[in-house]
Amino acid sequence: MKLQERYNQIINYFKENNSDAETELNFSSVFQLLVAVVLSAQCTDKRVNMVTPALFAAYPTPKDMANANEADIYEYIKSVSYPNAKAKHLVGLSQMLVEKFNNEVPNDMDSLTSLPGVGRKTANVIMAVAFSKSAMPVDTHVYRVSHRLGLVSLKHNTPLKVERELTKHIPEEIMGLAHHWLLLHGRYICKSLKPQCDKCPFDSFCPKKLEGSKL
Ligand code: SF4
After folding, report:
1. pTM, whole model, 2 decimals?
2. pLDDT tens digits for 93-118?
3. Contact 94, 62 (CB under 8 A)
4. How many Å apart are CA 105 and CA 97, to the nearest integer?
5. What DSSP element (H or E) covers 46?
């Protein structure tokens, strides 16, 4: 199967079966999305969604969070991973939003990654989800699924290389959607330790599945 044919087959399946895929993080503003995505690093969306309602109620805007103490934020987020570092990042990024970005979350890669705690993946999520831009955030699920399905070769061994390969082959207008497709497929079907190939719609042509015992 040619590479683009592989992409097309997978894209067509998801278009037919999950055309309204979206993030599983709860939020009601771009700022809240940014906070939730920062909190979700090395943590589950489910866990993040458990702590954000109280956090957002106490600190609904960048200005509110910019004036908070890290210790106060910590109390709200202590059940997520790396709460000390994340509390520091949330206060720091909120202060920068107030001081440099007029209380608004910016929508470009350079500005977003200038914020404390915001790397390329987080910036891509904000651009794709909040601003409907053509962006492909590569997290651990997208990285793994892209390799297993043969969408990228093994030599593309960093998130940035995988992002560049995926964006070459996926149409711009569905890039953000494709991110959710690959992520959710990794989260629920093509799991890291025990991929559920018997439930997978791509098992007939998945290179990893066809390797058999090496899953
Ligand atoms: Fe993952 Fe198995 Fe599906 Fe391949 S067939 S994408 S390894 S779940």
Report:
1. 0.94
2. 999 999 999 999 999 999 999 999 99
3. yes
4. 7
5. helix 45-58
